[in-house]
Design a protein that fits this description.
It is built from 11 helices and 13 strands. A hairpin with an 8-residue loop joins strand 1 and strand 2. The strands form 2 sheets. The chain has a 7-stranded mixed beta sheet, sandwiched between helices. The protein has about 350 residues and is α+β, with helices and mostly antiparallel strands.
Length: about 350
């Protein structure tokens, strides 16, 4: 009997993809080369945020009190459980709206599936997982698009609203600002361990906790006048996304490695040599802009460049606002939020 999508046995989702989660993003240097060949487009005065600063989402002013936040994000499986894959992908996509200070209003599903390899009920579980996250965020999945492709792909187009004065771009940091990171690092290491069948049940549960925790503090942080810039840490790793803040703001940053919040099992794994290929590609893209101290270990470098899927918000705020920023994170269940460094005059990233 010939296999159909209804009868074919379900393979491991991660075996169907060459990469997974935000680790399959195009490397920063390669992306930059690609965009060099893209001509300039129409830039209406209402477009508050476009591609100029590599920000998390586009923002279009509708009127004096409302601006539309528009973004899209999708990727191949980072886990094997279909519903968990959908949940992680949807949480990650909505994060860009929160990172701009916006509140999501609706989503559209982006679905690409190898119909000859995956049963329809598995595909349905992926989509339902994403829809469950949207319900938790209080928004509908109002439509979408689907195609038959070689590797499983799922994500969202996410739309939100924000007051124009409360948009938080990644390029408005100020010298002397403190840097606060909302989630611990190490998701990429855990995903690599999962593929190698070296991830414990507890490690999987922690990975799932952080990757499905919506970055809801974003709009509340945008209410604070002391918060000057914000982004979320995803596929380019902490160092990559912090360097985007540095370049956009024409400043440098100092980070204390000992102050970084880290997932315990990821720390153990990376010390044993577990890491993603994306962390190597990330370092090749921007390592020349990072100053490391003498004796800095390779595993420490891997954590700086570790691709985060549905990672935490990175906030640049005035020193006087730090306590309020940390309290805002804590109130929404982000007890791991930490001050990790400070913005300064100059350029590049210095790690101590």
């Amino acid at each position: 009997m010939e296999n159909t999508p209804e009868t074919v046995p379900a393979p491991r989702l991660t075996q169907l993809a060459h990469g997974g989660g935000c680790g399959c993003k195009i490397a920063p240097a390669v992306l930059g080369d690609i965009l060099k060949h893209v001509g300039s487009g129409i830039v209406p005065p209402e477009l508050m945020v476009g591609i100029e600063s590599s920000d998390d989402a586009a923002v279009y002013r509708l009127n004096d009190t409302q601006a539309l936040v528009a973004t899209t994000d999708f990727f191949t499986p980072i886990v094997d459980d279909p519903r968990d894959f959908g949940r992680i992908a949807a949480t990650n996509a909505l994060s860009d709206v929160y990172a701009m200070g916006g509140k999501p209003i609706l989503a559209l599903a982006l679905v690409g599936m190898p119909l000859a390899k995956l049963p329809v009920d598995v595909i349905g579980q992926i989509i339902d997982g994403g829809a469950s996250v949207c319900r938790a965020a209080g928004i509908p999945v109002a439509g979408g698009h689907s195609i038959d492709v070689v590797e499983p792909i799922y994500g969202l187009v996410a739309l939100g609203l924000v007051e124009p004065a409360k948009v938080r771009k990644n390029c408005n940091a100020q010298a002397g600002d403190m840097l606060v990171l909302g989630k611990p690092l190490g998701v990429g290491v855990l995903s690599a361990a999962l593929k190698q069948e070296k991830l414990s049940a507890a490690g999987y549960a922690e990975m799932l906790h952080w990757t499905t925790l919506l970055n809801t503090p974003g709009p509340k942080l945008a209410e604070l006048p002391g918060v000057h810039a914000m982004t979320d840490v995803t596929g380019f790793g902490l160092a990559g996304h912090l360097l985007e803040i540095c370049r956009g703001s024409r400043l440098g940053a100092d980070v204390a490695f000992a102050d970084l919040p880290l997932i315990d099992e990821a720390l153990d794994g990376v010390r044993q040599g577990i890491a993603t290929g994306a962390s190597t590609r990330n370092w090749a893209s921007y390592g020349s802009e990072v100053e490391l101290p003498n004796g800095f270990a390779e595993w420490q470098q891997k954590l700086l460049t570790d691709p985060q899927t549905s990672g935490g918000l990175l906030v640049s705020c005035a020193p006087a606002a730090v306590d309020t920023v940390l309290a805002t994170f804590s109130a929404d269940g982000f007890g791991a939020a930490r001050v990790i460094g400070q913005m300064r005059e100059g350029s590049g990233l210095r790690v101590r």
